[in-house]
Each structure stands twice: as structure tokens, then as C-alpha cells.
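Worked problem 6 (solution included).
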Amino acid sequence: MNDSSWGAPPHTGSQGGYWGPTDQGPVQGAAPAGPAYDAPEAQHTRPMPIVPDGPVPRYGEDQDDDRGAARLSGPLFRDEPPQAQTYDMPQAPPHPAAQQNPEPMPDAPQPAPPPQKKSAGRDLGAAIGVGVGLGVVIIASLFVVKAVFVGVIAVAVVVGLWELTSRLQERKGIKAPLVPLALGGAAMVVAGYVRGADGAWVAMALTALAVLVWRMTEPPEGYLKDVTAGVFAAFYVPFLATFVAMMLTADDGPWRVLTFLLLTVVSDTGAYAVGWRFGRHKLAPRISPGKTREGLLGAVSFAMVAGALCMQFLIDDGAWWQGLVLGFAVAASATLGDLGESMIKRDLGIKDMGTLLPGHGGIMDRLDSLLPTAPVVWLLLVLFVGSG
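Solution. The predicted structure is:
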């Protein structure tokens, strides 16, 4: 292919003629043959490139000599750095093996999840250890000196009042006065032990009066709800606990208190064991979702057996059939007491009343079944074997 085949437009010289392919001067009417770089008067302009008829040369191949060649794509001279590729090349799709599929195929079998073990919800080891420790303290104080056990009851009452009033203030903004409650509660327990039921009622009335007067030292806003909560706390914790001290005054008082404690613990244990293993039907799902009807049957069964044994072997003049009635009553009152405190905790939006006892919660979480059971056991023992 000669130079004229590129179709470059002619260039005019200074005299209006055309430069020919030679350097002999302008020739009129001669065919254009591209610029001559050795002519002294040639214009330093490059012609517009015309796409050739043939295939476009690849990058790096010699497209023409360095005289009058037009750039098509990329550099033509050795001393020019290569330019970036200016035309887009279609990209090949990724290899199927390189595609990742994080989701399993719809028809791929999914591995079955491992079976979940049924949890008790608490640290069982800590709960058992704390329970054994409390039992040792109670038994030692109960059978050594009765007055020491009365002091244990009073301490438990004061701590329980502190937990209850603290949760009421934190969750509801109710400021039940703790000082008159603590002093009146301890006095109530002692009065019940010394003066019996009459002393307990008098101490209860004085404690309620002290709560009303004590709250008057603060602004009147919230007075009614504060004193109402204070009177409720005085009845719920120390007054019900006074019946334990009243049991202790009998000749076989320590054995009566021990029977009361054993039946309550056995009832709770039976409800827990049977409900955890066989529980299917909820007892009161809106109050305590963990309690089941099967657990209640376990509580009744365990408590009735334990009641028959205790009345037959621990209580003077007791009979086994009386123990069956006593065990049934204890299971019912302990369950109601547990549900009652669950209602309080649900209203407050808490799980436990405190954290003083690892594995158990607070003192009030252990007194929930004992407090309403105390007057029931006291009354039935008085009816069955008398108060002496």
C-alpha cells in the first residue's frame, strides 16, 4: 500500500501550490501525497486520521514509518509512554466455581439443632449450699436457746422490710418509711413471743400509727400511697412472722416450728421436682409462668406424706391423719404465698426482691411461702393438739 491510500488531505504551501511527493517544488494539479517533513516551510499541523480499510493494527505493532503516519490508538513512537486503554472490552462472566453461595440450596437437608437441656433457671449448687447453711443456723438457734431463734426471726423481718421498701421506692416511687417499720416489726415479733396474739395485735396497731405519724414530716404529695404501702408492709412481713414466734412458746415449740419449716420446704421441693420433670399445664401463666398443675400435685403429695410423718413422730399427741390435713393446707398456703409475691414482683417489674442469698435471690424470696403458711400451721396445731 502506498502513502496515497490513507486519503490524507492536501496541504497548501506558501505559494498556493501543492507539495508533491518530491522536494522539487510545487506542482500544479498534482495528486496529494501527504506531508513532507523535510520541507522547510511545511505547516506543523497533523491531518485528521482516517480509518483504514484494513483491520486495526494491534498495540505494539509497527503501523507505519515515522513520517506522516497518523495515530490510530495508543502511541506510535518508542519514546512515548503507553496510554491507558480507551475502549471498553466486554468482561467474561466469572467462572461458576468461583461463585460463592452462602445460603444452602433449598433442597439441601438442614442439620437438626441439638436438644436443649431443661434449665432450672437458677444456680442449683449455690441454692443448695445457701439452703443448707440457713438450715444449720435455724436448727442450732431453735434447739439451743429459744430467745436466739426469736432474734433470728426479727433479723429476717428487718431485712425483708428493707428489701420490700427499697423495691417499692425504686420501681414505683413509693416511700414507705423504713425506720418505724423496722422498729415496729422487731417489736411485733418479740411481743408475739412474750404476750401471744394479743401482744402481736397491739404491736401491729402501734406500728401502723407510727407509720402515719412518721410520714407527716415530709411533703403531703404521695402521703396516701406511702402510708398505705407502709401498713401493708407491716402486716405482710412482721405480723405474719409473729405466728412463728407464737408457735415457739409451746412446750414442744421447737418441734412445732421445725414441722412448719419442714412442710413448707418439702412442699416447695415437691412442686419444683415434679413440675420441672412432668409439668405441662400452666397453673397461673399470667402470674407465674413457671408453675404448673403437675407441680401443685407434687407439692400436695410431698407435703401430705411429710405432714403425716411429722405429726406422728415429732408432735406430742399428734396423729398421722392430722398430718395429712396439715400437709394439704401447707401446700395450698405455700403456693398462694408464692403466687402472691409473684404478683408483687410482676407489678414492680423485677425477678427477685434482692441478691443477698446466692441462688435464692433475697430474704423475701425465701419468706414468700413461709409468711402466709405460719398462721395456717399455728391455727391447725392449736386445733389438733392445743396451744400448750
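Discussion: The CA atoms of residues 93 and 99 lie 10 Å apart.
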